[in-house]
Amino acid sequence: MERRRGFQGVVLALETATRPGGIAVLHHGKIVASKSGSADQTHVERLPRDIIDLLGSLDLTIDDVERYAVAVGPGSFTGLRVGISAIQGLALIKAVPIVGVSTLAALVDGVRDSKLVGTWLDGQRNQVFSAGYLRLKEVGSPPTSASSGGPPTIISVPEGFLEIEPHSVGTPQEMSICWQKRLEVKSLTLVGDGAHRYESEAKDLLGSTVRVLPIQGNLAENVGRLALGASEGQLLGPHALRPLYIRRPDVELARNRRRG
């Protein structure tokens, strides 16, 4: 992928929303090192050792990082908490700013050869985390969100895209309803591990021409690329960073049931 304009310093990007997760280091606007995780190890077991090791492979340390980027969700509740906490702790060492990036925005950023892109991230319980994006004609067009009421504090829409279906969660059947009218004029690409898992359902509901793609490479690389173009209002301090759950955590649902 071509180098992007924007922040040129050292960026450490982390993604723990998926089971494998990943880390990437960017400098001068390009990826200089990255590492994908393994589903055989938990994020707790790998962090922060993998971050320190990846930086060390470039003769860098935590002191050299000038910006952090982290996937803030949606995704695994436990994974998000581990990843966000790790970045918050590291950022506190030298008061380095953090950029929060939607996992769904990172997913769609890896698919730039399609006009209409839907993201389906596996949410378990026969559900997917979903959002919809329309690629704009003009290269370099500012990202546009259909669901935000003002400048977002996290990056939820990649540059050059319009968000046409907001971040949401539901069954593949429920999410497919959102696309049925749009498919009358445009073909659809669905990307993500949820799209791969529920490919047969998607094609049954939306037609066999739907293009289904798994997660494209190391999502941490996309998280880092998106963070290069963060606005001043998207450079957050550790205490301002919040997860984007979309669905309430199990512990909260269980607590509400007990109270009810």
UniProtKB/TrEMBL annotation:
Residues 39-138 form the Gcp-like domain. One of its GO terms (cellular component) is cytosol. GO terms for biological process: tRNA threonylcarbamoyladenosine modification. This is Gcp-like domain-containing protein. It comes from marine metagenome.
